[in-house]
């Protein structure tokens, strides 16, 4: 909403009534109003977010999604499957919802991967997932190089992949390492310790430390990646987050009365675990990271780094194909382009 | 362990559920609506609602959940602390986007065009409170005879309330000054096309990290107040450029006109613009849910085209107030007084309300048109080349080579050519981009 300019003029006049400089007396142009214009546009357009959840069955993936977005957004809630059958091969299922809060609209897509890690032989079980992610990049690339492009290219690229680590308490399994090693190169991975209410605080700390060590020794770069910190401020905030990964989460979609307040939690005979209580589990940190503070950053890294890497690779590939047909040596061209 | 209880709840009937829901959340905010799409199945009510009305007593005291950590958005935070528990929290998204843009800063390229002496430089300085033309040397008549239209660029960084703007002013000295002004807009059109081409190259290239956006976002065209509406030069210029850039016509030196004369001229100019089919920049229509004040302002804006402006770099004293204006023996013209001229409207439009839209239209319409045309002309060359090679039996290099004198083609040839172009355009547009790249890079 723009302030009528005459009002603004009076205000600045009074403020700098005694300024001496002849030219820049009333020095308010109003550039900061562009933020308001951007906000207006963003509110109209809405946002898109695509989250993938990966992990063995039974680790609480669907419940966690429902808890995060405070509504039934997961695959299980939408499709009425009476019995949970483990599929023979990995399937990729995505469900989209339009959600709105305080005037901000978001198209949330949750991509589920039932069957991951559930087979007897889990060799190469990450391949369908990698293919899916690359297919989304490909679709975006094709739209982008189209001659008549859409005003706003629909973004189906996977912004974030939440990987569920079973709470063994010891260390990462070979499957976990293999998966994260490969996928951290193409997508932002956020590892979480699932069903963390089976670990005591000491066990949890030990487990986390062990996981961080293993991630480091295997060269796995999870979100927030160190190399993409933009400035000192970012680095400071992200360092704090990096010291807490992986988040130990508990999900729940049932409410209980605790001390006169209604809270989401899990009731057991020995107490109630409150999902949003940071003394109990780290769900609140995960939610804050994913939604309240770093959502845009996650999307930016996907589009400006992961997607760009894919694009460069693809364009180089097709270049090679063309030049080989024409008999021009490949290194000749690369020199030009770089 | 939980399940049997849930099923029991179900049998109890849905009314009970809904009633309880109402009781438990008297203050449920209306903002939080359930997901709309894809919920058709679950809406049938066969599943228990998200919020169950369970009252459970406990023996062990549990610590109170601490409130959300202090948010980084401070003033702009759409949630206050107490609302924490009920919201998911993604309404901070616009703030997150802002934060990135504020860090990066914005850029804007404004072109000013019009004959000399219409007050372009003064207006630019007044608009942005800058001093861009301080050391300018004005040419006299003899020097101007041989002068061609050049394009000059001035860049200035402005910061206000933490927002950084990199403003580029593109000036066209010499426009309309010569005796024979035929096609004097050509260098201007070429400049705009060059910026598009540069951007197209950058966008199709491999390293897209820091693309500089030098595309012209808006062109202020200065119409002389001394004529009777648009002159032939004005018409030709605007028609040559209206599909390349957003044109905002401006009635210069409006203090030579009385209010009635201004009105008449504006109406005449608007009619002529319509008559000649000139597509000036159109303000986007208001949404129906905007407030009345906004709609009123929007309407006034649309009816003020062309903006009758006065510029001034000096501050004069009037009735004990210091104002930016022009001092005449018969009175003082105040630049920022909306009763005197439309300067304030123009500035608000350009900077405060429509800057983003100007950039969007440039990006989505003018640039996309250029890009589509560029690719089509590349395709055409490729097709011609292939046809030529077919005739001469050379091995196809597929590199677009500049053609010799154009051969007039018969109707069938034209159809064949167009069909070929279509084929090429549909198959693998990607290899086409490579060809485009090669042409630029070789």
Automatic annotation (TrEMBL), chain A:
Q: Where is this chain's protein located in or outside the cell?
A: Cytoplasm, Cytoskeleton
Keywords from UniProt, A to Z, are: Cell cycle, Cell division, Cytoplasm, Cytoskeleton, GTP-binding, Nucleotide-binding
Kindly give the Gene3D superfamilies that the UniProt entry links to this protein: P-loop containing nucleotide triphosphate hydrolases
Task: Kindly list the GO CC terms recorded for this protein.
Answer: cytoskeleton
- Keyword hit for Manganese: no
Q: GO BP, one example?
A: cell division
Instruction: Give start and end of each Septin-type G domain.
Output: 45-317
The family line of this record is: Belongs to the TRAFAC class TrmE-Era-EngA-EngB-Septin-like GTPase superfamily. Septin GTPase family.
Name this polypeptide is given: Septin 9a
Originating organism: Oryzias sinensis (Chinese medaka)
Automatic annotation (TrEMBL), chain B:
Q: Which SUPFAM superfamilies match?
A: P-loop containing nucleoside triphosphate hydrolases
Q: Indicate the principal place this protein occupies in or around the cell.
A: cytoplasm
Cell division found in the keyword field? yes
Q: Give any GO molecular function from the UniProt entry.
A: GTP binding
Share an example GO biological-process annotation for this protein.
cell division
* Gene Ontology cellular component terms for the protein in this record: cytoplasm
Report the residue ranges that make up the Septin-type G domain in this protein.
Answer: 104-377
Basic and acidic residues: bias regions: 8-27
* Source domain of life: Eukaryota
- Which regions are flagged for Polar residues bias? 41-54
Q: What is this protein called in UniProt?
A: Septin-type G domain-containing protein
Provide the family line: Belongs to the TRAFAC class TrmE-Era-EngA-EngB-Septin-like GTPase superfamily. Septin GTPase family.
Whose protein is this, by species?
A: Oryzias sinensis (Chinese medaka)
The record ties this protein, via InterPro entries, to: G_SEPTIN_dom, P-loop_NTPase, Septin
What keyword terms does UniProt attach to this protein? Cell cycle, Cell division, Cytoplasm, GTP-binding, Nucleotide-binding
User: Does Transmembrane show up as a keyword for this record?
Assistant: no
């Amino acid at each position: 909403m723009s302030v009528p300019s005459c009002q603004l003029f009076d205000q600045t006049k009074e403020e700098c009534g005694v300024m001496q400089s002849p030219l820049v007396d009333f020095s308010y142009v109003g550039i900061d109003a562009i933020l308001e214009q951007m906000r207006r546009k963003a509110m109209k357009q809405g946002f898109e977010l695509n989250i993938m959840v990966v992990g063995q069955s039974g680790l609480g993936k669907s419940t966690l999604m429902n808890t995060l977005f405070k509504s039934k957004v997961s695959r299980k809630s939408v499709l009425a499957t009476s019995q949970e059958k483990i599929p023979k091969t990995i399937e990729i299922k995505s469900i989209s919802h339009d959600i709105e809060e305080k005037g901000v609209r978001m198209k949330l897509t949750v991509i589920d991967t039932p069957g991951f890690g559930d087979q007897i032989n889990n060799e190469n079980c990450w391949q369908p997932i990698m293919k899916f992610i690359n297919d989304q990049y490909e679709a975006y690339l094709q739209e982008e190089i189209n001659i008549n492009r859409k005003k706003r290219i629909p973004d189906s690229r996977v912004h974030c992949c939440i990987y569920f680590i079973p709470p063994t308490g010891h260390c990462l399994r070979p499957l976990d390492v293999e998966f994260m090693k490969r996928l951290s190169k193409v997508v932002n991975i956020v590892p979480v310790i699932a069903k963390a209410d089976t670990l005591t605080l000491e066990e949890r700390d030990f487990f986390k430390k062990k996981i961080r060590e293993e991630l480091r020794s295997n060269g796995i770069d999870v979100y927030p990646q160190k190399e993409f910190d933009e400035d000192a401020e970012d680095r400071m905030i992200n360092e704090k987050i990096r010291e807490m990964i992986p988040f130990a989460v508990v999900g729940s979609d049932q409410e209980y009365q605790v001390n006169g307040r209604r809270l989401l939690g899990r009731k057991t005979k020995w107490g109630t675990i409150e999902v949003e209580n940071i003394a109990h589990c780290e769900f609140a940190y995960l939610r804050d990271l994913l939604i309240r503070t770093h959502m845009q950053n996650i999307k930016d890294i996907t589009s400006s780094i992961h997607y760009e890497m894919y694009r460069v690779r693809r364009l180089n590939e097709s270049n090679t194909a063309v030049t080989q047909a024409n008999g021009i040596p490949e290194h000749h061209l690369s020199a030009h382009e770089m | 362990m939980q399940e049997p209880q849930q099923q029991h709840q179900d049998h109890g009937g849905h009314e009970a559920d809904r009633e309880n829901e109402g009781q438990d959340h008297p203050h449920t905010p209306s903002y939080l609506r359930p997901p709309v799409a894809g919920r058709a199945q679950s809406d049938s009510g066969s599943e228990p609602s998200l919020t169950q009305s369970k009252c459970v007593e406990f023996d062990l005291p549990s610590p109170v959940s601490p409130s959300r950590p202090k948010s980084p958005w401070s003033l702009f935070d759409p949630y206050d602390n107490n609302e924490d528990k009920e919201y998911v929290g993604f309404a901070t998204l616009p703030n997150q986007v802002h934060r990135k843009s504020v860090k990066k800063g914005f850029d804007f390229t404004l072109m000013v065009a019009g004959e000399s002496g219409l007050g372009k430089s003064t207006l630019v300085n007044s608009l942005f409170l800058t001093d861009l033309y301080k050391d300018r040397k004005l040419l006299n008549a003899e020097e101007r005879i041989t002068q061609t239209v050049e394009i000059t660029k001035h860049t200035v960084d402005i910061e206000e309330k933490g927002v950084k703007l990199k403003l580029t002013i593109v000036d066209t000295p010499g426009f309309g000054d010569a005796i024979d002004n035929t096609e004097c807009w050509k260098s201007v059109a070429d400049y705009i096309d060059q910026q598009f081409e540069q951007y197209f190259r950058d966008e199709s290239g491999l390293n897209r990290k820091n693309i500089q956006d030098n595309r012209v976002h808006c062109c202020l065209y200065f119409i002389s107040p001394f004529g009777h509406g648009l002159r032939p030069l004005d018409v030709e210029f605007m028609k040559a450029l209206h599909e390349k850039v957003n044109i905002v016509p401006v009635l210069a030196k409006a203090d030579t006109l009385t209010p009635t004369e201004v009105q008449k001229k504006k109406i005449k100019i608007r009619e002529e613009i319509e008559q000649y089919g000139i597509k000036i920049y159109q303000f986007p229509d208001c949404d129906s849910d905007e407030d009345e004040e906004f709609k009123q302002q929007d309407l006034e804006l649309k009816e003020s085209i062309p903006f009758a402006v006065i510029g001034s770099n000096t501050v004069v004293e009037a009735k004990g107030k210091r104002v930016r204006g022009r001092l005449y023996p018969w009175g003082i013209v105040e630049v920022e007084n909306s009763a005197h001229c439309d300067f304030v409207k123009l500035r608000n439009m350009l900077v405060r309300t429509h800057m983003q839209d100007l950039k969007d239209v440039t990006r989505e319409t003018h640039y996309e048109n250029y890009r589509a045309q560029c690719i089509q002309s590349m395709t055409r060359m490729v097709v011609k080349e292939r046809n030529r090679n077919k005739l001469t039996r050379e091995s196809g290099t597929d590199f677009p080579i500049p053609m010799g004198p154009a051969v007039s083609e018969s109707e069938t040839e034209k159809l064949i050519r167009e069909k070929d172009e279509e084929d090429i355009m549909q198959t693998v547009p990607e290899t086409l981009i490579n060809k485009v790249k090669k042409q630029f890079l070789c």
